[in-house]
Amino acid sequence: MKTELTSLLEAYERRILGQSLNLKLLLSAILAGGHVLLEGVPGTGKTQMVKTLAGLLGGNFNRIQFTPDLLPSDITGSTIYNMKDSTFQTLKGPVFTNILLADEINRTPAKTQAALLEAMEEKQVTIQGETYPLPDVFFVVATQNPIEFEGTYPLPEAQQDRFLFKLHIDFPSFEEEKNVLKQVIENSYDASLVTSELNLNTFLAIKKEIETVTMGESVLDYIMQIIRKTRESESIRFGASTRAGISIGKAAQAWSYLSGRDYVTPDDIKMVVKPALRHRIQLSPHVELEGATVDQIIEELVGAIPVPR
After folding, report:
1. In terms of DSSP H, where are the helices of 233-265?
2. Is 220 left (phi over 0), alpha (psi -120 to 50) or beta?
């Protein structure tokens, strides 16, 4: 199964140029059973990244364009009265799928954003008092534009905490961006040509294998020291929760599996710690005034902790 996963990642990198690290992190998060928040300016290929992954995994895919007038029922579904049969019928919303793309999630108010909370955490949806389970393979990838753009609503902390990773999508290098332009202008890129590299049963089996990846006591201590340090640092106003530590551990297992190992190393923790924490901690006001970023503070914090052998 590792061979199939390697083929999938290679096919992914051929389709999406200039984002190799983010592609591997995105795949790691999904294999760990988590949801992902992609942030970047418009036009950097966030939506294409998710659509391509959905095609490679071979699962059902739905996309919701979030807008200011979107209602919670537009996501989860609703109940209607069928006058012909004199019965109530439940119409399931687009959330009933394997891969859900919540496009520009910060374009809609908090009430509608919150409609995803139960689905993301419990893998179920309640419609008019009735609870419906979601598929075994279900994950949300949400895209958002930075909050300094007009007409956006920052995600509440409770919503952000449901995402395993927050990935920053930046512009590719000169040559990679040139290749993207060349493919599109020459019509050599066709999204419909993406073929499945896995099936859902194989995907579930790989997830089971990842759960068996060994994590030693010293690595667990390393994760806990990082989490505790975020709560003690004067640079951080609100530190990371226990859920953040769990996210780091699960993501590190998936990353090590993708790297061809059956055990987690401290280097695996370092690879996943930024995307796992950057949306879960808040900097102190004086640190923000000095112009420091969350990633810089995380890097300094992790660098001050002795690495276990």
Report:
1. 242-258
2. alpha
